[in-house]
Amino acid sequence: MSHPFLLAAAEAAAEAAEEHHAVPPGVTYLFGLILALMILALALEEKIHAKKSLITGLFAVLSLFLATVFDLLPFQAKPGPHQGDAMLRNVFGESFELPIYIPAIDWGVIAIILGSSLFVDVVSKSGLFTWIA
User: Fold this and answer.
1) One domain for residues 25 and 51
2) Which of 30, 56, 73 is the last residue of a domain?
3) Fewer C-beta within 10 Å: the chain N or C terminus?
4) 96 lies in which domain range?
5) Does one domain contain both 19 and 54?
6) Residues 6+ apart with CB under 8 A from 24
7) What tens-digit pLDDT sequence spans the chain (133 residues)?
8) Helix, strand, coil shares of the chain as percentages rounded to 5?
9) Is there a contact between 100 and 74 (Cβ–Cβ < 8 Å)?
10) DSSP string across 12-47
11) Are 74 and 99 in contact (CB under 8 A)?
C-alpha cells in the first residue's frame, strides 16, 4: 500500500537521475516537510513525551530510507577509488557491500562523544564538580 505522492516522487527522481543530477521539486518539498515535522516534534517534545535524541534519530532513519528509495544516495555496484573500501568481509571470507552512509560515519567523533559522556558521568558521581563549585 504505497502513497501516490511517494510513487510519483520516486518516478520523477528516477527520470531526473537519468537525464542529469537535479533533484525534482517534489522530492525537495518532501524532505522539507520532513524537516519541518522534525522541528515541530522537537518544539512539542514535552507534549509528546519523547526524547530529542529519539525524535531526531527517527527522522534521520526516515530520511535515509527515503533517500535510498528515491535513489539519491550514490550507490555503485563496486566502490570507486573516491569512496574508499566500502566492502565488508567477515571471518568466512564473504564480502558485503555497505551502504554509503555506513563508511561516511566518523567513528572517531562518535567514540569521543561516548568517551566524554562516560567521563563526565563518572566524575559527576565522584563529587568533583560539587567540590570545585
Assistant:
1) yes
2) 73
3) N
4) 77-133
5) yes
6) 9, 12, 13, 15, 16
7) 556 666 666 666 666 555 556 788 999 999 999 999 999 999 998 888 888 889 999 999 999 889 888 878 766 555 555 555 566 677 777 777 766 667 777 888 989 999 999 999 999 899 888 888 7
8) 60, 5, 35
9) yes
10) HHHHHHHH-SPPPHHHHHHHHHHHHHHHHHHHTHHH
11) no
Buried b (16+ CB within 10 A) or exposed e, 90-112: eeeeeeeeeebeeeeeeeeeeee
28 plus 13 within the same structural domain? yes
Residue 18 identity (one-letter amino acid): E
Residues 82 and 24 in one domain: no
Residue with cell 537519468: 18
DSSP run (H or E) holding 97? strand 95-97
This prediction has a pTM of 0.53
Same domain, 4 and 66: yes
For residues 80 and 76, give the distance between their C-alpha atoms in angstroms, rounded to a whole number.
Answer: 8
Q: Please say whether the beta carbons of 73 and 101 come within 8 A.
A: yes
What domain count does the chain have?
Answer: 2
